[in-house]
Amino acid sequence: MIRSRLLSFRLAGLLVLCSLVAGAHAQQDLLVSTAESGIPGGKLVAALRSEPRSFNPVTADDQVSVGIISRVMADLVHINRATQSTEPALARSWTVSKDGTVFTVKLRRGLKFSDGAPFNADDVIFSFKVYLDEKLHSPHRDLLMVAGKPLRVEKLDSWTVRFTFPSPYATLERVFDTVPMLPRHLLEKDYLEGKIDQAWGLNTPPDKIVGLGPFRLKQFVPGERIVLERNPYYWKVDSKGQKLPYLDELTFLIVPSQDAQVVRFEAGDTQVISGLSADNFVALEPQQNSRHFKLYDAGPSLEYNFLMFNLNDDTQANAEVAGKQQWFRDVRFRQAVSAAIDRAAIVRLVYHGRATILSTHITPGNKLWFNKAIKPPVHSTDKAKELFKSAGFSWNSSGKLLDRAGQPVEFTILVSSSNAQRSQMATMLQEDLKQVGITARAVPMESRAAINRVLGSHDYDATIMGIASGDIDPTSDTNVFMSNGQTHLWHLGEETPATPWEAEMDRVLQKQLVTLNYQQRRKLYDRVQEIEAEELPLIYLVTPDVLVGAQETLGNFRPAVLEQYTLWNADELFWRTPAGKR
Amino acid sequence: MNPGGRTLTSGIAASRPDGASPSAAALLRLADFSIDYLGSDGEVVSALRNVELEIREGEVLGVLGESGSGKSSLSNAILRLLPPNGRITSGRIEYRGKDLLALSQSELRQVRGAGIALISQEPALALNPVLTIGRQIIDVLRAHRRVSKEQAMEQTRAMLREIGFPDPDRISRAYPHQLSGGQRQRAAIAQSLICEPSLLVADEPLSSLDTITQAEILELLQKLKGELNLSMMFITHNAGVLSSLAERVAVIENGQMRACGTLDELSSLDDAYVRGLIFPEKDLGRVLVQPQEPNWSVTEEPFLRLRNVSKHFIQRHIFSRRKFAVQALQAIDFEIREGSTIAVIGRSGSGKTTLARCIAGFETPDSGEVSFAAEVANQSRGVVQLIFQDAGSALNPRFTAADAIAEPLVIARQASPDQRSQRVRQFMEEVGLDPSWASRIVIEFSGGQRQRIAIARALAASPRLLILDESLSGLDLPIQAQILGLLMDLQSRHGLTYLHITHDLNFLSRFADEVIVMDDGRIVERNTPAVLFQSTHPATRSLIEASERLHAPGLEVAQ
Amino acid sequence: MRQRGKFMFVVSALVAVHLLVLFAGFVAPYDYATQDRDHAYVHPTRVHLMDCAGRFHLRPFVYVTSLQEGALSDYREDCSQPAPIRFFTRGDEYLLAGLIPSQLHLFGVASPARLYLLGTDEFGRDQFSRIVYGGEVSLFAGLLAALLALVIGVLAGSIAGASGGWVDETIMRVSELFMAVPWFYLLLALRAVLPLKMDPVSAFILVVGVIGVLNWGQPARLVRGVVLSGREQNFVQAARGFGAGRLYILKRHLLPMTFSLALTQMAVLVPRFILAEVLLSFLGLGIGEPFPSWGNMINEAQQYHVLVSYWWMILPALVPVPVFLGYHGLADALREKLQSQVRFRGDK
Amino acid sequence: MIRYMLRRFGHALLLLVGVSLLLFILMEAAPGDFFSEARLSGEISPQTLHALRAQYGLDQPLPVRYLKWVSSAMHGDFGYSVAYNMPASTLLLPRARNTLLLTVPCLLISWLLAVPLGVLAASRRGGWIDRVYSGGTSALLGLHDLLLALLALLFALRTGAFPAGGMASLDVTGGLWVHWKDIGWHMVLPAAVLIVGSLAPILRHVRSTMLDVLDSPYMRAAEGHGINRFTLLFRHALPAAANPLISLFGLSTALLIGGSLLVEVVMSWPGLGPMVLEAILARDMFLVLGAVLLSTLFLIVGNLLADLLLYAFDPRIRTEA
Question: Cβ C173–D18 below 8 Å, yes or no?
């Protein structure tokens, strides 16, 4: 199959460059893209919110750097952002042992790094050795650990690598996504000298930064732009056998303000825009025809925003908070607050309709795991009042809600000042809660200071936060929902589950982790969502849609709800207009 | 306002010696000229009312008046240089037949400097501190003449030489602060004359200079008048200056012309005010008590003794911090007996003021000793009080008279507020001020009145020795006489001792028991006034001669 | 005369503004926090004298408006529902001058009609009311901060200038330090120690006040210059001759000299501190919702989508301008007054 | 001269030490550190975070960290950026160059504009020009840089007359001249915003100093000599007013580094702004410290420059003694 496709590619023989390497094609295992076949050539310009901090895949953990690195480097197994499921990348194929612990990968043969050096299993072994090195503290390491133990990597032959997990792992192939394969020939010296964390910084010459991705670094102008050029050794071809990527150059301009990004997109300086706010989306809409771009609503994202009460039990020192926790711990109180919130108004005013009401942390954007059986929460002041009443609350003559002891119900809502939408939600919540007699006070705070309170000092009443799941698979969120999870936000550092429902959640989550069958996992996960919706440890609010835009003539533009909404398939993007002209 | 004054003016005008028609040969003529000032609180104050004046070609007209009479407004108004709150309310200014008030700004600019030039009162303030003298003169020249840079330089040098600078190159490169007061005034004159104006308006050009310099400048003006056939309007409060310079004199009182004519004509008028201006010493006769015989035997021990006092100043350069020593006092030795009045005279820069400040305790001598009689030495501060030259700067302009006078009491924490205000009234009466003005702000008083406030304040500190540091020289002569009278009166009542520092010799013999002459930081002579005026010491001689030149023949200078 | 008139005009205008703001509850037709969620981003309500039928009415009136189906901020007037503007109406409760509870408003229209003189924001809150209420906080905070900066600046500057020597040197070095160090971390630390439940308005005023305290450097240096030259004045020397101590000289002679300078500084500092909030909210230190301040309202307008779609949201940026103009006018007029006094007297 | 330089150098050193020490203390006092945000993601384990903190020395007590920094600063190493894992100076210097490229002309143009305008307004005191001037400066003081920057962007967008941000076009080919012309073209709007934003205080200052000078007797005397208005204002009055203006100029050099940060962010100028603002929020200690020290250095140099200018301009200082 592959061979015949290859043949057609050779017949096409479009580029001199290709014919130069034609001799090697015979052994090359190329991946054939199923996307629409496009026209090679042209340049694409996109904006970055900030400069990348590093080009080093071992240490980089900020979104921007990872975004660039993902264009320059490649992973063994890749999650297709559109289908949300895994597909082969550098790995041609793989097998999983029955018990789900052994993962054997067959590599594509004859691939070359962007500097022309060959790629084989040694590079894979090297890469994982680096990522798993304790001394390097690579952010990948923690993702490659299962139950606190690292996986084992062995080379079976030049084209086969075996990974052994310490225990069964439901989603084992997904962990390989965005774990870039490093060129051993360039980095091994640095690694042995213990300097690999210093390698590939911003001042490294571009030609020394080498990967297996569709593009390679051409130029970095500090503070200004990053220019990537086409990697001639890339390992994908289209259905017509044309070598991918189509684009000659992919340029990232550094445009630090979101408004400026919108302006530059509207002006045509950039041809793709990602992460539009609903406000800006709406403001741009009327310009679509005159400026020849198109805006896309890719549907609900994986970001869940929620109101959370402080349920930590180490708050004795803070009598103020401790006193209020007896309300917060009462599920009826949380349910009543949830019922008092007018989420539809949030969707309408904050997101101009481009958001969806949430009942659990799984958003409708998560096609595989969303539990459709759970009804979205309904706004009802009456129901809220009923619930309050049943929990022993009452109202005084001026309509203020009082607890059993006659104390007025008042609390503060911590909100990060850097997120406009959450601040707006806090403002609306205040007004909603006023309707049921609660005095809630929104306290904006610089984000690190706010995080410090939530994760560190636990000195807060309630907070509005948002978390964007990195992947659709539930595993990525176990840290939040397992009672011993590092980001079990509402109640950190629990020795044993504080409540029966937390205990049940722990059990179910633990079970799904080792369950390999999707249908069974799915059932378990539906149960998790039921518990969440009933107990409301987090009072879910809404999930915004992923809003992006691109020039009309950009082909294969398929925005996704997973990270890197727009450029995840940069290798397939092409200009419908003649090459060279954007 | 004063019908007598009017008739007098017209009478004089009619009796012009040459009998020429008034306007024919007039270079400048003011007719029915009035100026108002607008106060900040909306009140309108009239500075000049219906003034009639004319200056003929080649003539020097003296304008004589007390301070506050409106004579400075006159000089500014001629070139339309009144401050924004000043307004010409009526009249005409005709210069060579043209009405200056009708000219456009650019036409006016041609007259300024080239037709009519102005010399202002204070040369230190009239020159731009950040530009060289040469530059300031050249700018005037090039404002009116099309000359090349080199020509302008050449003309400037010539003018500076003419004005009496031996090395014009150095002067033209110098900045105002590098020149002495006399040099600055010369430079200002050079600036005024560079375009050969036909009329020079000089507004008190001498009053801020020391006597010797005054005489020199006066001589220069006389010379220039002869050489350049310059017309001049010379504004002053000192009639003595006019006697040798002015053909005619106009007397202004309170914004109105009081009289006009030659000095002789004026002095023969039966007008007490005019005569008071011309012969201020006649008033003195009334106020000054007869000079007392020196009374050496009041106490045996000298009240104040200076032994071998020396003082030098160090000036620093900001970058190098190199030090420059300027010797101000060198081995000064003298003593003062209680109840006596000692005058210290000398030209500016001779060290008089440093001496005063050393005695008053504002400066510490480098070497030597300033000692008081044993009985005073124990007394707390306030024994010595210094009265500054400029009462305006010695009183906080934000204070009321009562605040200022009570200040020593407040500082010493003496007396309750009630008592204080009573003492203030008492002191005000004593120095001849109306106690009902106690709550007026200091700047609302005239110069003479301010000096009285300063004296009252000094008295409030119950001093034994009063140092008068040029305290009178800024004042009009009659006022000087009045204040001297007051001081003598106070001396007899409070048994004060005076150290009177001055550069001019007015009233010296009437006032001082002894005179010390200083030059270059040293005492060159010490004598009673009577003997002093016969002195042959060059420093003393030059002071006496300058003083004689500046005063009308009738005015007492020497005994 | 003209000068006096100008002075009085400026003063009375400023007094009027401050009264307006002091009685915000009465002047504003709505509460600052009331959200009218069906009227988000309404453009300023049109006040009519002529009805749809072309008839003229003596009393101005407005029409009830409603959002067009599917539109974002396209509100249409309903000709069948006019509502006359009335004075001294009842509405949201407020505390008059912060003390007396009242429901009386200067003007308003009967529900369901709305009178939004300057439009509404994203929650349907009346911008006009918010501006009036916001002035309360902003002017107070701005004045307070400027006052603090000046008081400390004048004290430090005059002590430095009057003392000279090592005291002067030390104060000047410290003032340089204060001018060179960026204080955002201090503010973050400050916010961290304040209790969360602290009233947002007080917290905000505290933060702005601290900023005022930190900004004493520049006034201090300017004041020092004035004092340094004042120290050499004869009348100061004379006072010293009477045995006056430093404190006396400072109090009676030197401090009053700095008055005019302080005034000019005040006029510059008040606007600066009011606008400081724009940066403060960047650090999460702005005033908390729902309380309005001019700073956070200006901040609202500084967004692409707002500038493009909702022109009335920019009005809050223009509101402070006349007020600043007033302060500058006042400073200029007082300076002029002080100067002209001296000029007039000195020029006889 | 040498003593003077030494003294100035001593002051400068003192100031730098003070600024750095204070900043250390303040950063310690502010809640959170560079790794706070990573905790929230949940992907990085507490052990890793702990190890990273130790690697960057964040776990050491403040005095130790400060002394370490001082000793390395003496060797020219001003600390490592945690975020970029690079020396702070390597990161800051190329960006500082871009910032200066923008702010230095702005500073000069502001003054070149403000001086004649201020002179004009002062010479027409109370006239309509003066009133427009006073009103204009008040209005300018009331406008925030951010709003101006955004409006400028919208202007660029709607008219297409200027580039909507950035410092250089992507597809410029040609010689150095073409390159610089392109940069100049991009600079127009950010520069305009900065100038308009910084003009008001200078304008007010120039006017009031000029008023003081114009009131002085020597100006009246010069007017009496018939010197024309232009010479009078610019050759006579302006040098006399220079002294306080030069001092202000010296102080305003501190803004060369700090004054344009926000505008740079909005106008995507590749200067220090975006990096430093992010570093501030991210608590990237040495990066912030480096930027602050840089700006302090400019303040010091500016004040020195002001002194030298005063020396050159004011003969009263120059020829004293």
Answer: yes
pLDDT tens profile C9-56 = 878 888 888 888 888 888 888 888 888 888 888 888 888 888 888 888
Helix (H, G, I), strand (E, B) or coil at A331: helix
Contacts with B83 from chain C: Cβ below 8 Å? 343, 347
Longest dimension (CA), chain D: 84
Enter the tokens of residue B317: 């350069």
Residue A307 and residue A191 share a domain: no
Looking at the fold, whether D30 and D61 belong to one and the same domain comes out as yes
- Residue C213, Cβ density class (10 Å: 0-12 exposed, 13-18 middle, ≥19 buried): middle
**Cα–Cα distances in angstroms (integers) from residue A280 to residues A271, A273, A489, B5, D165, in the given order:** 16, 11, 31, 86, 18
Same domain, A399 and A529: yes
How far apart, in Å, do the first and last CA atoms of chain D sit?
15
Alpha helix stretches (DSSP H) within A293-419: 319-328, 331-340, 343-345, 381-390
Cβ count within 10 A of residue B70: 25
Chains A and D make contact, 3+ CB pairs within 8 Å: yes
Residue that is last in its domain, among D41, D68, D88: D88
**A312, part of any domain:** yes
Residues D81 and D117 grouped into a single domain: no
Contact B136 D222 (CB under 8 A): yes
For CA atoms D307, D311, D316, D321, give the dihedral sign. Answer: positive
CB atoms within 10 A of CB C229: 11
pTM, to two decimals: 0.82
Q: Which of B122 and B222 is assigned the larger pLDDT? A: B222
Asked whether residue A357 falls in the same domain as residue A501, the answer is yes
Cis peptide before C112 (omega within 30 of 0): yes
Whole-angstrom distance, CA of residue B503 vs CA of residue B212: 8
Instruction: Verify that D286 and D147 share a domain, yes or no.
Output: yes
CATH number at residue D143: 1.10.3720.10
Domain extent for D135: 95-320
CB atoms B191 and D316 under 8 Å:
no
The number of angstroms, rounded, from the C-alpha of A165 to the middle of its chain's C-alpha atoms is 24
Whether residues D164 and D253 share a domain: the answer is yes
Q: Establish if A501 belongs to a structural domain.
A: yes
Closest CA to C299 of A444, B391, B22: A444
Looking at the domain assignment, is residue A210 inside a domain?
no
- Chain B positions touching D311 (Cβ under 8 A) are 318-319
Asked if C270 and C142 touch (Cβ cutoff 8 Å), the reply is yes
Query: Residues A543-553: pLDDT tens digits?
Result: 999 999 999 99
Chain C interface includes D52 (CB < 8 A) = no
Do D131 and D217 fall within a single domain? yes
Distances from the Cα of A285 to the Cαs of A551, B355, D150, in angstroms? 13, 87, 19
Q: From CA B350, how far away is CA B520, in angstroms rounded?
A: 4
- ipTM value for the complex: 0.80
- Rounded Cα gap, residues B31 and B52, in angstroms: 5
CA distance A325 to C174: 47
In a domain, residue A27? The reply is no
Query: Do D137 and D234 belong together in one domain?
Result: yes
Give the minimum alpha-carbon distance from D287 to chain C in angstroms, rounded to a whole number. 14
Interchain CB distance below 8 Å, B130 and D217: no
How many domains in chain D?
2
- Which residues of chain D make contact with B314, given a CB cutoff of 8 A? none
Residues D205, D281 within the same domain: yes
Encode A119-174 in three state secondary structure: CCHHHHHHHHHHHHCHHHCCHHHHHCEECCEECEEEEEECCEEEEECCCCCCCHHH
Inter-chain touch A487–D265, beta carbons under 8 Å: no
Q: How many domains does chain A have?
A: 2
Range of the domain at A467: 303-543
To the nearest whole angstrom, how far is the Cα of C283 from the nearest Cα of chain A?
5
Query: Averaged over B79-108, what is the pLDDT?
Result: 83
Which CATH number fits the domain that encloses residue A382?
3.10.105.10
